[in-house]
Amino acid sequence: MMRRLLVASVVAAGLAGAFAHNTHSDSNQLRRKTLGFGPSHPHATYRTTPTAATSSFGAIREDPTEVARRFITDITKDTAIGSTFAIRKDSYTDKNTGITHVFARQMASFSPTVTRSSGVHPGDPLGLLAGERDDLHTEYCQKLADEMESRVQRIQERLFAQGEQVPMQQVMHEEQQGLDTLRDIHEWNCAHVETPFKMTAEGKFSASSEEAFSGQALLQFMIAATPNSGLAESMMKSPSDYINKMQFTFVHELTGESVTPAFVIDNVPDAVSPVKARMVYIQVPGDNSNSLEAVWRFEVEMQDNWYEAAVTVMEPHRIVSVVDWASDSPIPAPKEPKTLPPATYNVFGWGVNDPTTGNLTIEHENFDHLASPVGWHSLRAYNDPATVKSKSKDGWSNTTTTWGNNVFAHENWEGRNAWVENYRPDAGKNMTFHYAYDPQPTDKTEAMDEAKKFIDVAVTQLFYTGNMIHDLYYRYGFDEVAGNFQQHNFGRGGEEGDAVIMNAQDGSGFNNANFMTPPDGQNGRCRMYLWNTANPYRDGDLEAGIVIHEYSHGLSTRLTGGPANSGCLGWGESGGMGEGWGDFLATTIRSNSTYSDYAMGAWAANRDTGIRNYVYSLNETINPSTYKTLDKPGYWGVHAIGEVWAEILWVVSNRLIAKHGFSDSLYPPYPSDDGAVPEGNFYRPQEFTASGVKKPLIPKHGNSLMFQLVLNGMKLQPCRPSFFDARDAIIAADQALTNGENFCDLWEGFAARGLGPDARVDGRTPWGGGVRTDDHSVPKTCKSAEDPIPEPEPEPTPTPDPGEGDDDDDFPWFW
Ligand SMILES: *[C@@H]1O[C@H](CO)[C@@H](O)[C@H](O)[C@H]1NC(C)=O
Ligand SMILES: *[C@@H]1O[C@H](CO)[C@@H](O)[C@H](O)[C@H]1NC(C)=O
Ligand SMILES: *[C@@H]1O[C@H](CO)[C@@H](O)[C@H](O)[C@H]1NC(C)=O
Ligand SMILES: *[C@@H]1O[C@H](CO)[C@@H](O)[C@H](O)[C@H]1NC(C)=O
Ligand SMILES: *[C@@H]1O[C@H](CO)[C@@H](O)[C@H](O)[C@H]1NC(C)=O
């Protein structure tokens, strides 16, 4: 008994210690608070076989939206709710593949008697299901607490079973990361949420209108979300003070989802912009089926977070789900001239990952008619945040600074949210962004000033890298309709007004970076930090891999579940893959025709092995990660999960490179003036269908093909994908693009790291827990392929199992 108590207190001390100081020795980085949880829908199924069009004339081209409608009607007609649904307006046809992605939202009518004046109170039709599911979040938190308890037990066992053989320090070190992660998840997501605050019941506030009810629910959320504990206490003590100060503006809408009340709420404590609020139903799992719960859906922008939260309409206001649109990067253990010429930049060119792998060179502004038709420094005046909105619709803003249609880049030493007036370099009429970079070691007290001297280089580099990524991803299908980031969309569809705001040397932190991805039509926000890991400081803006990783959060978030849904990669395996794609794409971009292993963030972190547990390597001794690795302590955080996913993709990609060779440039050839894309040595000769229609262009080489399949896979996978879903989506993408010629190669790659067809997870938990089983086998149809490098020109592989995405009309279906 005595011994048990002793160990428990040691463990507690270890945890506190780990929290107070970062595991990275000389880092003063605080852990950013972030909430992320929601109901899991274990019943959800991913079906890829749509209802066949019935025609005696064989295959007919049909309006894909009609195919989708029929499919949804078919699979929902027998359900309790029936099949009332709306096709979302962010549905689109992918020009690259011809695949149409249709997103649907299930509708449930609110009673017309629920109006502003009637208010919302228990007994109303709105409340029909509320109150039944009080146990949901508690269960989530209980599981987390159990997990922590069993970790503590494990430490006890290790310490006592092995006596003095393993020093306590080493045991603590080995177990610390896992405990840290669990502790953070528990503290952030459970501490305030377990005891919803009954404002009315406690007589502290008496809500009499719908506005006030939404204000109450919002305050409940802010109490949980604010990183400022003093403010949280004050809100709990006198909620009415805060609610009375809020200003509610009722939003009238002619069309859309507007049968339900919507507000914009101003003066919300700790929010940096007015909060959008709308009443909706959310699906929560029940014992046998799902039920609906009426919630307020809030969009809350804060200094370091941008949340989409669902909080019950009924009191006590429970937070049912919350997604942070902000993604952290790795926290390692520790006016107008006449006509301007095209700009040039003295920067680390594309493919140079950081200052140790190349020198500054003069690079040119990209005028790719498809990706950036007017270059990087022009935007329509009416979409220019720096000009008055009333300007003529036809006017252009042509700038001599790092301000354009795709990216706004600038310093943000103050670490604030304001950005329009921030400093940015001005290249003058010649458009020459040419600055020298030679930082010198200094006293610790002067390190910051030394770094700031090179702000022109940092901002120029960030602007250049951001625009290059925009253009590259554009050419692989992250275009306007797919939800990309541009102020002006050239009439090509999608929502505009959403270039990426990129902060260089952001003063809100060190040794990190992050990216916030709201839905299409709202600016993405990227913050890059200085790294105090060396003298002189290292500037994250200069490490392309970090910038690419961050921008890729925008890519994966907008492509998964459709442009208007930013809530699909919030936590657990899907959140982890959100990190992993960024690592994989950054590594692919820096790699060359001679194979090498690569570390993430090695320069900025000043550590050869970088900021992950392992470098990305095909060698299983150097990087042993498999699917099963997710079971290990320390693998509940999204970055660790992402590292495993990136490694798996790296292995798969190199299989395709062995088969199809390597393209020295990932950029497809420039389009001609009419927008036609030449094949060059980049694409295979274009094929035509029997009826003479051009088939999609297929990248010729392994690395470019994998790049395309990964992006196409993101569009095909369901909302909140698991590793299995994302794997299947890549295989489905290959089926659609190449008729499945890489079916076996892809399976062999996935199977090499445990993600074969019989891989399993038992007892999955929302944050990524569960017990996984690796499978190294491949589907039966692939059994003959024993040699690692198949024939260069293999026969098209047999059609995969039915249900594996065998039709152009595949689309993700999710509830
Ligand atoms: C500004 O840029 C637009 C788009 O490239 C171009 O059409 C226009 O001529 C430019 N205006 C000036 C004054 O340079
Ligand atoms: C950078 O330039 C220096 C001096 O010209 C040269 O010695 C070095 O090899 C170059 N480094 C790289 C990575 O190209
Ligand atoms: C711009 O270019 C011209 C011609 O090359 C040169 O004479 C002039 O000095 C340059 N101006 C600036 C501000 O660099
Ligand atoms: C390829 O990349 C590796 C690792 O960055 C580097 O050592 C090598 O010199 C590069 N090879 C070529 C041909 O650029
Ligand atoms: C894998 O890495 C280990 C450790 O560095 C090394 O001993 C081994 O030779 C490598 N295997 C291959 C196939 O390169």
From TrEMBL:
Residues 772-786 have a biased composition (Basic and acidic residues). One of its GO terms (cellular component) is extracellular space. Residues 755-815 are annotated as: Disordered. It holds the Pfam family Peptidase_M36. The keyword Metal-binding applies. Zn(2+) binds at D328, H549, H553, E579. It is found in: Secreted. It comes from the Eukaryota. Binds 1 zinc ion per subunit. Residues 803-815 have a biased composition (Acidic residues). One of its GO terms (biological process) is proteolysis. Its EC number is 3.4.24.-. Keywords: Hydrolase, Metal-binding, Metalloprotease, Protease, Secreted, Signal, Zinc, Zymogen. GO terms for molecular function: metalloendopeptidase activity; zinc ion binding. Its main location: secreted. Its cofactor is Zn(2+). It is an enzyme of class 3 (hydrolase). Residues 1-20 form the signal peptide. The active site is at E550. Belongs to the peptidase M36 family. This is Extracellular metalloproteinase.
